C-alpha cells in the first residue's frame, strides 16, 4: 500500500519495526523512520497497516500533537477507534467506512 501511494506521487514515510532489509529492497523509494512517532511527524494522514501490538498501543493524544492532521486509516481494523476519536482523530476502517469502536 505504501509503495503504491508513493508511485502515485505521495510522500510516504514508514516505520518497519524490524527494519527489514527486504522491505527496503522492495520499496527503496520510501522514507524509513526510526520509530512510529518519527514516521508520523507532520503527517496529513496516518495509515495503520499491521496488527503489531506496538502500534496498537500508541497513544492517540500524544501522536495527535505531532501530526499535521488527525486523520487515521486503519487498514486492519485493529485499533480501538473510539479511543482515537475521543482524542480528536477522524478514523476510517478499510471496508467499513468509519472504524468500529
Helix content: 25-40%
What order do the helices and strands follow? Answer: HEHEHEHHEHEE
Give the overall pLDDT as a whole number. Answer: 88
Structural class: alpha/beta
Task: Describe the secondary structure blueprint for this structure.
Elements: H1 2-7, E1 13-14, H2 21-26, E2 31-32, H3 36-40, E3 46-48, H4 53-56, H5 60-64, E4 71-74, H6 81-86, E5 90-93, E6 97-98
Parallel strand pairs: 1-2, 3-4, 4-5
Antiparallel strand pairs: 5-6
3D architecture notes:
Helix content is 32%, strand content 17%. Strand 1 (13-14), helix 2 and strand 2 (31-32) form a beta-alpha-beta unit. The chain starts with a helix and ends with a strand. The strands form two sheets. The chain has a four-stranded mixed β-sheet with strand order 3-4-5-6. The chain has helices at residues 2-7, 21-26, 36-40, 53-56, 60-64, 81-86; strands at residues 13-14, 31-32, 46-48, 71-74, 90-93, 97-98. With 101 residues, it is α/β, with parallel strands linked by helices. It is globular, with a radius of gyration of 13 Å.
In short:
32% of the residues lie in helices and 17% in strands.
List keywords for this structure.
four-stranded mixed sheet, 6 helices, two-stranded parallel sheet, 17% strand, 101 residues, alpha/beta
